[in-house]
Amino acid sequence: MCHAFREINAVLVLVRQIPVDPDESVNVHVEHFFRVNHADFYLGHQVVYNASKLVKLVKKKESAQNWLDYFQLKYARNPSVRPSRKRGFCGLWGEVVDSINYSAEQIDQLSKEAAAERERVLGDEKAILPVAFVSFKTRWGAAVCAQTQQSKNPTLWLTDWAPEPRDVYWDNLGIPYVEQNIRRLLVTGALIALILFFIIPVTFVQSLANLDGLEKIAKFLRPITERHFVRSFLQGFLPGLVLKLFLLLLPSILMLMSKIEGHVSLSMLDKVTAAKYYYFMVINVFFASILTGAAFEQLNSFVHQSASEIPKTLGNAIPMKATFFITFIMVDGWSSIAGDILRIWPLIIYHLKCMFLVKTEKDRENAMSPGSANFDIVFPQVELYFLLGTVYAIITPFILPFIIVYFGFAYIAYRHQVINVFNPEYESAAAFWPHIHNRIVASLIFEQIALLGLFSSKRAADSTPFLIGLPVLTLAFHIYCKNRFEPAFLKYPLQEAMTKDTIDKALQPDFGIKSFLQNAYTHPIFKTEDDNEESRHLQSSEDQPTLICTTRSTHAKKVVPIIT
């Protein structure tokens, strides 16, 4: 299956921002454009429909079918009592009706509405979005199309490599170019506001870890905090636990923001959400913890010293936060690894669903689904702990055993979960690695800069000139890797495409990818029904004449010759 998907992606291009033509439909317009501009390599295309209303109807139908199965099962267990319900919202009010008959009537009505809506969508040219999946006969032709500008207007006929069918996020395919940029600007502003707002709970957490500074501000807390047990608990365990609780809902909020931005693939959603989560963690967990901790511990120094002395103060504050980060690693890192390997949270969710939501075997199967690897959560956590390990490796080496234990457990746990537990949602072809590499290098550079600051604060300034070369060499290595290896993740070399095309022609001259493309990029909602009508929109240029008639008013009834 994965090999078939890779073969499909090698010859498929996602085309967006298809311009409106008053004389041609989107379907005809796409075919005409690619027959003219990519005549020797164009194979066919598949348009995308706006099926949002159909999706809602099908979901209602599935819900009604699930209720029907539940009522039938309930009646089979106790035939003496016929199940009943009220017609009103959630069965709370209205006329009392037979539940089985009422659900059957709902299913019949929704089936008719869904069929009618499906026919309307497939037959309405206005329901076609300005998006299409275009297939090519060769990898070389697809690479040329995906990696070049198609029009004089750079905002029209936008082409990129098509994500694999499982990776497509259908809800965002029809977002216009200008609207998408506006959305990203608004989401960026919202993310900055969220990061700044989150400094408040981080400051509160640091106040728990720095009771001496808190007692100077709020003296009424001193009788409580002076107790040995309370003080040990507040300084040792509570800060990491409170910060973990504040971070629970954060990934869901960031994923929602990424969806609003308009990304068209699940892998891209995970990538940008992971980036947001990482920057959020670095700013609020790492930098804010250090800065707010220093503010509580050395508030008087910050007020009276000059601005040039503040870096030295922060250099002294970084080692002081080692205890907090050790507890945070144990509370967040170790517990999350243990929870993942034991599947505690999914087990709790499963039992809650069984208590309140599971009505049929289908519900039980859905509740038992293991899900997929949460790359948008796992990667930022691993990258944050790598940052902590590199920064504190020399400054406070005592933190290293906790980091090493975390990475050891993480390797064992995630390797097992990915291989034996999680369902793979998509294949991204290692698209995450360039981002991980960049953050690893950034962690090394920051560690080297922090080391320079620490030596300066410890009156070891004579040794700092010898250390200046470290970040310079690391940055040079990063630039070399970026120029040498990153293009391999973004571009498909034409030489390699031609080589593979030649090998395929020699080894598999009769191999046709058209059979894979018939329904691969059909909207999932159409796959629940008979999709013969949908597949008719994937047309092969081999079956079409070499003359194309256009109905545009600018050159109506003229024939455009195509040399084949």
Write a compact overview of the structure shown.
The chain has 564 residues and is of the alpha+beta class.
Chart the SSEs and their pairings.
Elements (H helix, E strand, L loop, with lengths): L1 H9 L1 E5 L9 H12 L4 E8 L2 H26 L6 E3 L9 E3 H25 L4 E9 L2 H8 L11 E4 L15 H33 L1 H7 L4 H4 L2 H9 L1 H9 L3 H12 L4 H32 L1 H6 L5 H11 L1 H21 L1 H13 L4 H7 L7 H21 L4 H21 L12 H25 L6 H4 L1 H16 L2 H4 L3 H14 L6 H4 L14 H4 L11 E3 L9 E3 L3
Antiparallel strand pairs: 1-5, 1-6, 2-5, 3-4, 7-8
What brief labels describe this structure?
564 residues; alpha+beta; 3 domains; four-stranded antiparallel beta sheet; two-stranded antiparallel sheet; 26 helices; 8 strands; 7% strand; globular; disordered N terminus; disordered C terminus
Walkthrough of the structure:
The chain has a four-stranded antiparallel beta sheet. Strands 3-4 form a two-stranded antiparallel ribbon. Strands 7-8 form a two-stranded antiparallel ribbon. It starts with a helix and ends with a strand. It folds into three domains: 2-53 and 123-147 and 492-561, no CATH class; 177-427, no CATH class; 428-490. The protein is globular and about 80 Å long. It is 63% helix and 7% strand. The chain has 564 residues and is of the alpha+beta class. The protein has helices at 2-10, 26-37, 52-77, 99-123, 139-146, 177-209, 211-217, 222-225, 228-236, 238-246, 250-261, 266-297, 299-304, 310-320, 322-342, 344-356, 361-367, 375-395, 400-420, 433-457, 464-467, 469-484, 487-490, 494-507, 514-517, 532-535; strands at 12-16, 42-49, 84-86, 96-98, 128-136, 158-161, 547-549, 559-561. Mean pLDDT is 80; it is low at 1-5, 294-299, 530-549 and 553-564. It has 26 helices and eight strands.
